[in-house]
Amino acid sequence: MLKKIVEKLGKRGVLPFVCFWLICTSVVAWRCCYDLKVYFGGETLVYRFVSQSGYDYLLHLPVGYTDFGQARPLMVFLHGAGETGKDVEILKHVDPVHYAKGNVPVKDFPFIVISPMTPQHGWQPKRVVQLLDEILADEGKRWNIDRSRIYLTGLSMGGFGTFKTACEFPEHFTAIIPVAGGCEVEHAAKLKNVPTWAFHGDADNVVRYECSADMIKAMQVAGCREAKLTTLRGAGHGIMKNVYTKPETYQWLLNTKPQKNYSP
């Protein structure tokens, strides 16, 4: 067959034909290598100015991810005030992925992780959910997300943002982990069906320990399905390592009951 093609093309047409197939083969080989690196090695991808929410974000694909394999749970991480408005690349050094590497077994970290960056102080729940909606509705990327397992976590300003966003949109999240955050206690009942595990150091001199303690207590009084607080004795404000390096943190998320599939 190849001989017939060559005869048909003639000598002048052979070289372009060979070059074309060499280019095609190279592209396929590169793509396969890229897929192996990203999907099976786990890699954080950077997206800039692609969301109508106004938030740039990092997207991390877990080890072994494929578009056609098992759907993966989604974790959204909200950073603290110190990262506000900076280069989104800085989030690679503060998000759960950073702390989980080398500390958490691969089986306990199957999450696709979205880490948005806010350009101004404070998180706006509507924008967080708008970004989430865009990601779930984006047929162009087709991330293989388990829509019954969507988790929200954040530190400090992000801890407040986690509480506030879940209070305004409780049906969106399977479970939340606010770290060194807080919320107005009058909103506690809104989280009745959202399992919550808060963390706070009792020596925190940036965000008062009572901000978390009072909220969790109010949630328990309101009859929330699961609301608990881990008090880190003698710990100050920087407790990311105490939370995000622990396999049990992620095991708890994965053990919470899946919700009805969320659709934008």
Structure description:
- The protein has an eight-stranded mixed β-sheet with strand order 1-2-4-3-5-6-7-8.
- It is globular, with a radius of gyration of 23 Å.
- The chain is of the alpha/beta class and 264 residues long.
- Helix content is 37%, strand content 20%.
- The chain is built from seven helices and eight strands; from the N terminus they run H-E-E-E-H-E-H-E-H-E-E-H-E-H-H.
- Helix 4 (157-168) links the parallel strand 5 and strand 6.
- The model is unreliable at 27-40 (pLDDT under 50).
Features of the shown structure:
7 helices, single chain, 37% helix, 2 domains, 264 residues, eight-stranded mixed β-sheet, alpha/beta, 8 strands, Rossmann fold
Percentage of residues in DSSP E strands: 15-25%
- Assign the CATH class of the largest domain: Alpha Beta
N-to-C SSE string, H for helix and E for strand:
HEEEHEHEHEEHEHH
Give the CATH H-level superfamily of the largest domain: Alpha/Beta hydrolase fold, catalytic domain
Detail the poorly predicted runs.
Answer: 27-40
Please give the oligomerization state of what you see: single chain
Using the coordinates shown, work out and report the CATH topology of the largest domain.
Rossmann fold
Helix coverage percent of residues? 25-40%
The CATH architecture assignment of the largest domain turns out to be 3-Layer(aba) Sandwich
Beginning-to-end CA distance, first to last residue: 51 Å
Radius of gyration: 23 Å
* Physical arrangement of strands within the biggest beta sheet: 1-2-4-3-5-6-7-8
Average pLDDT figure: 85
- The total of beta strands comes to 8
Please give the largest β-sheet. 8 strands, mixed
What is the number of helical segments per DSSP (H or I, 4+ residues)?
7
Give the structural class: alpha/beta
Task: Work out the count of structural domains.
Answer: 2
